[in-house]
Amino acid sequence: MMPLWMKLFCTTAIGLFSMNALAATATSNFQVQATVSASCNIAANPLTFATPYDPTVGTQVDGQTTLDVTCTSATNYTVALNEGLGAGATVTTRKMTSGANTLDYTLFREAGRTSIWGTTTPTETVAGTGTGAAQTLPVYGRILSGQTSVPAGTYTDTVTATITF
Predict the structure, then answer these.
(1) pLDDT of res. 22
(2) Any signal peptide, and if so, which residues (predicted)?
(3) Spatial contact of 143 and 104, defined as CB atoms under 8 Å apart
(4) How far from chain centre, in Å, is Cα 134?
(5) What is the mean pLDDT of residues 102-123?
C-alpha cells in the first residue's frame, strides 16, 4: 500500500503531465511598417556689417552670417538666396535701402567672395546632403566699393533663403 503523500504526489504529477500534454501553441507573424518623410528646415541669421561703410573712402566692407539647415538623413538639398527687396536688385548686385537711397552689396558662397549666391541651380546655389543634425552654411557678404555718393543712414534689405529637397 502506498503512503498518502506518495498518492498525492503521483496524482499531482500525472495531472501536470496531462495538462502539459493538452497545452498547445500557435504563432502568427505580422509586419511592422513606417514611412520616414524627407524633410528640411532652414533658419537664417541676420547679416550685420560690423564696419560702417565710409563713402568718402569708398572701399568695400565685408561681413558674414550663417544659415542653419536641418534635413532628414541622406536627403539631398539645395539652398538658394533671392535678390532681396531693393528695387532693381539682382543676385549679383543686391540693394539695401534707406528711404529712396540704396547701398549695393553682394552675397557669396565662399570666403574668397568670387562665387555669388543666387537662385540658378547649380551655378549659384549650395547643395548638400542631410545628416539628421543641424548643418551650418556660411554666407559671405560684401558692400561694393566705389559708392561715394551714398548719404549717411541705416540701410536694410530682406533676402529670402529657400531650401529645395
Answers:
(1) 83
(2) 1-23
(3) yes
(4) 6
(5) 97
107 alpha-carbon distance from chain centroid: 19
Nine cell digits for residue 104: 549695393
Residue 85 to residue 23: CA distance in whole angstroms: 78
pTM for the full predicted model: 0.81
Beta bridge partners of 129: 76
Domains, the chain, with CATH or none: 40-164 (2.60.40.1090)
Average of per-residue pLDDT across 50-76: 96
Q: Could you tell me whether strands 61-71 and 40-44 are parallel, antiparallel, or unpaired per DSSP bridges?
A: antiparallel
- Looking at residue 48, its pLDDT comes to 95
- The residue-averaged pLDDT of 83-96 equals 97
- Give the 3-state secondary structure of residue 140: strand
| Segment holding 29, helix H or strand E | none
| Residue 15 pLDDT > 70 | no
pLDDT score at 2: 60
Buried b (16+ CB within 10 A) or exposed e, 149-165: ebeeeebebebebebeb
Centroid of chain to Cα 49 = 24
